[in-house]
Amino acid sequence: MKQFLNSEVSQFTKVEKMNNFINYGMVGGGEDAFIGKIHRIAANIDNNFILVGGAFSSDPENSKLFGKKLNLATDRCYSNFQEMAKKESEREDGIEAVVIVTPNNLHIPIAKEFLNRGIHVICDKPLGTSLNETKSIENLIKKTNRIFAMTYNYCGYPLVKFARELILSGEIGEIRSIQIEYAQDWLYKKLEDTGQKQALWRTDPLKGGLGGCLGDIGTHAFHLLCFVSGIKPTHILADLSQFVFGRTLPDNANILFRFLTGATGILWVSQIAPGKKNGLNLRIFGSKAGIEWSQENPNFIKFSVAGKNTIIKGKEDLINYPYLVKFTRTPSGHPDGFIEAFANIYLDIAQAIICKRDGKDPPNKTYLPNFNDGIEGMRFIEAAIESDYNNSKWVPFNS
Q1: Is the Cβ–Cβ distance between 174 and 337 less than 8 Å?
Q2: How many whole angstroms separate alpha carbon 255 and alpha carbon 295?
Q3: 7: how many CB neighbours lie within 10 A of its CB?
Q4: 41-77 pLDDT, tens per residue?
């Protein structure tokens, strides 16, 4: 098994053998930005991407200083994203893709600027601050024929992909019940009052949007639910709360789903649950069996059948799924984690960009979250807000 895994990894991850490296730039993700560093590490793991420029801060001086810390050329450390898009598009060695890791209100304006310059976009979630705003670039994406990727990174875990395959192949039967939760505790007090940057913009409706915890982590959970199950809800009922006094956006949510197949679902999202760090857990039960997966123990899934012992499935069980084995980076007994899952998203993005260069379609079994997934996330947020506003009534989820 070890030899099999290693051969698959070495064959798949070196996309650079197919063509040149992919020059990319980053907007946001400066000195104190956790997620910017994660993106840079993930993009670098398989040697497909090279960071060559960026506008890392809204403060021009800080942006340039941080770019120098990353050993970037001085003339590619930009004061703002507009300058970056213009100058990079004019360079012979300019960037092919931009990574957007800014507050949510800037995602769409930045994406437009780079799409108009013919540059692929890799955008952190959520897509924006409102559904109407995000729809405004749909035609632009089609017109420019550029890749628009969303970094819903939890679908990058090999065992998440395996769970999806088991469900789609009928191993658990007809889906009856879905439970998913995403709970954290970092906002259980009014951290935004301390001036902490990440808390400040995420609790500001002008920068983060009206979703609060729904936009920050709820869209991750919603995407995971739809990705693994292969189904989407037809109706949503939501009860949103602001438990921390003085906070205007939801910090806790309880949401019910109805599906066209007759299945039902429940989602708990919280950022005020003491002791919960990154508690993303998914359970899907069907007419034949059930599957459970936890992000804090991501290298295994539980497969349960009534009247039998629960089976723990891991990397070894991927041997009959070569298109999944390629997403594992270490031999059995060595865990693949959060950054590796992120890197798998970048691996698919690299493959898509290279195929685009060559005028080819991406290969089958490509798991690349895209603009449509971003739109679905925005629909989810707005449907939940609408339901809560109307005294938690069932509202249609129109995809």
Answers
A1: no
A2: 20
A3: 11
A4: 999 999 999 999 999 999 999 999 999 999 999 999 9
Beta carbons of 93 and 25 less than 8 angstroms apart: no
Enter the tokens of residue 65: 């200083």
Looking at this protein, which amino acid is placed at residue 310?
Answer: T
Nearest C-alpha neighbor of 22 from the set 307, 390, 354: 354
Q: Is residue 149 within 8 Å of residue 122, measured between CB atoms?
A: yes
Which residue's structure tokens are 């603009």? 371
Q: Under 8 Å CB-to-CB from 20, ≥6 apart: which residues?
A: none
pLDDT digits (tens, 9 = 90+) for 148-168: 999 999 999 999 999 999 999
Taking every pair of Cα atoms in the chain, the longest distance, rounded to a whole number of angstroms, is 66
Under the phi-then-psi rule, with left for phi > 0, alpha for psi from -120 to 50, and beta for the rest, what region is 195?
A: left
Q: CA-CA distance, 295 to 153, in Å (whole number)?
A: 11
155 conformational bin, left if phi > 0, alpha if psi -120 to 50, beta if neither: alpha
User: HSE on the CB side for 81, CA within 13 Å?
Assistant: 27
The radius of gyration of the chain's CA atoms, rounded to the nearest angstrom, is 21
Q: Would you give the DSSP letter of residue 17?
A: G
